[in-house]
Design goal:
The structure is a homodimer. By secondary structure, chain A is mainly alpha-helical. Chain A has two domains: 410 residues, no CATH class; 157 residues, STAS domain (Transcription Regulator spoIIAA, 2-Layer Sandwich), CATH 3.30.750. Chain A has 28 helices and six strands. Chain A has a six-stranded mixed β-sheet with strand order 2-1-3-4-5-6. In chain A, strand 4, helix 24 and strand 5 form a beta-alpha-beta unit. The relative contact order of chain A is 0.13. At the A-B interface, helix 1, helix 10, helix 20, helix 21 and helix 22 of A face helix 1, helix 10, helix 20, helix 21 and helix 22 of B.
Amino acid sequence: MGNADYVYPSSVMNVESSPRVAIPPPQPFFKSLGYSLKETFFPDDPLRQFKNKPASRKFVLGLQYFFPIFEWAPRYTLQFLKSDIISGITIASLAIPQGISYAKLANLPPILGLYSSFIPPLIYAMMGSSRDLAVGTVAVGSLLMGSMLANVVNPNEDPKLYLHLAFTATFFAGVIQASLGFFRLGFIVDFLSHATIVGFMGGAATVVSLQQLKSILGLEHFTHGADLVSVMRSVFSQTHKWRWESAVLGCVFIFFLLITRYFSKRQPKFFWVSAMAPLTSVILGSLLVYLTHAEKHGVQVIGQLKKGLNPPTITDLVFVSPYLTTAIKTGAVTGIIALAEGIAVGRSFAMFKNYHIDGNKEMIAIGSMNIVGSFTSCYLTTGPFSRSAVNYNAGCKTAASNIVMAIAVMLTLLFLTPLFHYTPLVVLSAIIVSAMLGLIDYEAAIHLWKIDKFDFLVCLSAYVGVVFGSVQLGLVIAVAISVLRVLLFVARPRTYVLGNIPNSVVYRNVEQYPNAKHVPGILILEIDAPIYFANASYLRERITRWIDDEEDRVKAAGEASLQYVIMDMSAVGNIDTSGISMLEEIKKVTERRELQLVLVNPGSEVMKKISKSKFVEGIGQKWIYLTVEEAVIACKNPTKDESEAWNSV
Amino acid sequence: MGNADYVYPSSVMNVESSPRVAIPPPQPFFKSLGYSLKETFFPDDPLRQFKNKPASRKFVLGLQYFFPIFEWAPRYTLQFLKSDIISGITIASLAIPQGISYAKLANLPPILGLYSSFIPPLIYAMMGSSRDLAVGTVAVGSLLMGSMLANVVNPNEDPKLYLHLAFTATFFAGVIQASLGFFRLGFIVDFLSHATIVGFMGGAATVVSLQQLKSILGLEHFTHGADLVSVMRSVFSQTHKWRWESAVLGCVFIFFLLITRYFSKRQPKFFWVSAMAPLTSVILGSLLVYLTHAEKHGVQVIGQLKKGLNPPTITDLVFVSPYLTTAIKTGAVTGIIALAEGIAVGRSFAMFKNYHIDGNKEMIAIGSMNIVGSFTSCYLTTGPFSRSAVNYNAGCKTAASNIVMAIAVMLTLLFLTPLFHYTPLVVLSAIIVSAMLGLIDYEAAIHLWKIDKFDFLVCLSAYVGVVFGSVQLGLVIAVAISVLRVLLFVARPRTYVLGNIPNSVVYRNVEQYPNAKHVPGILILEIDAPIYFANASYLRERITRWIDDEEDRVKAAGEASLQYVIMDMSAVGNIDTSGISMLEEIKKVTERRELQLVLVNPGSEVMKKISKSKFVEGIGQKWIYLTVEEAVIACKNPTKDESEAWNSV
């Protein structure tokens, strides 16, 4: 490209005739309100595809929107079926032992884990838009529900009430999830940042693994606390009760599960090795106990599991105080956590396979499956990462793999439950531990430290909060720190001094561009955040200090004295009335010091508000420029410009 | 200014040799942490003046920092003294009746109002940096303290405990105020925006005025509730008990006070007319009662006031639960509210008189006066607006006017308290009502509506919350909405399409500049906020929709197909790891659609992080430009540029 290709029009250099900062055309209040609401709640414009369509087509599209199965089922092929059957059976073999294990984390009967892998996957298969999500219960959600409900009802003393409370909490989790999606409030889930989730999951996995020491050491009495201190105290205060048989069995199975996982990770073709390992462990463990009668030598077993499908529980929901508030609170916390996991997992796999997932639609699907689940003896389900990854690796094509899994679980419930009688608890604990170790993502934590120290702090505090406090505490701390960071960004915005980049008309931050040159007699400042009540005082102080510093520097260096303060408002997205007062105060401060304040490139919101509040008239329209360059030129040639301005009045 | 004055250097037009976006020089972790902390907590760099000074000078400066009296006392003149005596006596004449009235709002003995106008002003005179602030109790703070403490201890049933609790709450208010200043956490006060305060004050004034109906109508039993509904119910359920004598007296005095205020407002020279009016009312009212024996006909009077100065109360502070938490909570809420008023008032008058006030220093001064106050029978004090305005109008020169006021109050306490025996309560109510009506700043509310609808919403909800709920509720709602606004700004940033402004190299938002021209085949987007976890999902959806919309538009208009998406990052102040993932996803989305993603002008923080996370390598350094213009030129001449880029590798 040669210089001849692009010639700067002469008018650019001519400030008088150059374009000025525009005040955006005024809009009726309700129109601008409507636009703001649309931008806030409908970033993806979900009604887009409904535009200009006949009513019948709209109905079909609407049906497909809420039930994506109507979209993909007509295009379903035999080839798809084959893949989905393979992946469905694979995830079922993982779902059965995991379901039984995780139910124990929630202090619930093991059979609930199987129930929860039957109905919810069927609902999700109809309503979900992810092709890879495998539905089931999750360790962290189970633990969280268990610890929140056990605060109110003791699961050993009143197991029936506890069970009903768990269904009620699941019901509210579903209602909250579905409403978040329906009212497009998905951004609440966004407040659980990636860093929070890494720390939180790692902490929960640590806690859950430690709790498994109970079964692995064959202890009968154990703390209900989930923090490191009480678990360790419980373990080491009973050293005389440790059962070596149980411990050996546990270590062997953990080793077996970890080895198979390591192998499958290295050889993705053999994904089924690690997927089948838990079921294999259960079968081997059960056989071992059955043959050696180890259950009589201190190895605890599951015992009897009821045969038959999910009994209805819609009439068991508890809507009376004081249990109602507990159920709502537990439902809200576990529901949002489960949602965060489900959506993040769905989104990651959609990204791999290049298809799009609508977060709000997913929330409705996950919420519906929990509502229906709570009516049919299921507790909280979502799309766990481990199971979905197996589903993906097994080559699933559509959500039909969930249907296959549900059928496999159904058959188990109908015919195979007696086989689990002799399954030793220690094997279930081994399954949990090996799954949990995969959730401690220390590499992600290192990555956070390298890139963003603040994110690392969030992650670390979530981890420490969960491990030394409680699961809820870790979550609250991490979310609080994340929100604090956002508030701090606004409350303490960065301000920069700009300099001219040599051989250009561009002015940039002198910290980032050390070669940017200072313009004598002019201080150019950039503000990097909206000017709101939360930072108005701060900015007034900080800008005053920039001016003080500059005047001192100029005096010390013996340069021409400061005459102009240019404020580049490009990055100021919005302003409120406190912000406008701040600008007025800065104007007074500069006037008192005989400096001229110049504004550059206020955005549409800012320009609208400062012109309504008469600040524009106060500073003079002629001291507001479109670019820093124009402002600097005007400052360098003040007399002429001023006289022209006077003439034009 | 002619064109010849400024010639664009040819290199600007030559993309290859033009300056590129710089990655800021790496800094050691602790250095950058230190810098961030300094920017966050010391915007005004208070240690600036101590630099390069000998130790003795540093000591004097330090003393003057904490006790500004050492700064102004040596320069004190006889002329100053004259002015300060006049203004001191004027504010004393206002402080005495107001003090007695406001103590009643806090359910405290009237004499406490006088005590609180004696010691705290002396402390402030030594430590305060405002020349115009007149110290005393405030209506809203009194009401708030009264309603918060009465929730725990009934002031009629256990007046002694209630009194001690009030001193304890004042002590904690002082401690919290002083620590906020000492630890430079003044930004907590900033979260009470101007809009919040307008609504909150208006609501509190409404509630306080309505409560005065008790004395004005001469009712004996009255609700303890402070909301509109319970007050109105209380008033209208006792219509048969209304005393017309009292009501007539009340209306006459309110009318008198309002008339004098109106007069003084129109004729600022006669400020003393309205300043003296409350004391005149008290004297007239007392005389009237004394002469007519109206106290025997249903006009309630103050009764006996103890003679003598403040008794010490340091041993009365209650540090036992459950009262401790109440005291801390009440102290925190009332302390912060009082601080907000005191600092705002101090700052406004400093702005008028062109001197500077250090907010953190003021907090230490106000906190200290409350701590000392709590030891000497005083309750919460700050710098009320009405009294400070009178002080200012009376021509005060320094904080010495507070000393004069304190001496006047001292003399009253020593000799004049018996004179208040016959003062009718209805006069005190009239004084409160007329002061409160001035606080309902409906003009400010209209101003907010005109300039910023959201600020108006905040103001309105504070008002409605206070009037229909409680003072605390109104405050919580208003602060929550204000914080929500800040979060919403970050969670839902505005995105704009940019166009080229004719005859310039400048690209601006097409909404604000309707004449800005679209560049064929290129979509230029601007993001107006930091990219954080809270908005990463939103931005991904919204940017995808911009691309969809643009592709649809291009197709419909039959223009050249979209090839480039330029993202102007100038206004993106920061990014976190979730934001970087979002950028990576956007890159994948654009690649899938065969579009090239181009970044423009990432700031130092953003550039640092995206280069650490390898995103820069992913997108290619050559697709990051310093200005939109350069990016557009590069997009328009892709082949040549690309081949050159390849050559340079």
